[in-house]
Design a protein that fits this description.
With 81 residues, this protein is mainly α. The chain has a domain of 53 residues. The protein starts with 7 loop residues before the first helix and ends in a 21-residue tail after the last helix. The C terminus is likely disordered.
């Protein structure tokens, strides 16, 4: 299985998207049932999003492609499903 690396530019774009929408990251995290601390870690590049909740967060933020075998992962408001 090939590892997918999340780029810093993708993380910046995701953070800018929150700013542009006027939405707080912590509010988004709560709405989607994620730990706000882990969402901040994914956006900062500290959590790589390889597995578990960090992976689900990265997918929901649009930082990683939606896995074909798990379409029920919550998606980012701008992501097409």
């Amino acid at each position: 299985m090939e590892e997918f690396e999340i780029s810093q530019s993708a993380c910046r774009a995701a953070k800018n998207s929150f700013f542009a929408r006027g939405e707080q990251i912590s509010t988004w995290a709560e709405k989607h049932g994620f730990s706000k601390d882990l969402v901040y870690s994914v956006l900062a590049g500290r959590a790589k999003g390889h597995r578990g909740q960090a992976h689900r967060i990265a997918v929901a933020l649009g930082l990683k492609p939606l896995p074909a075998d798990n379409p029920e992962i919550a998606t980012h408001p701008g992501r097409e499903t």
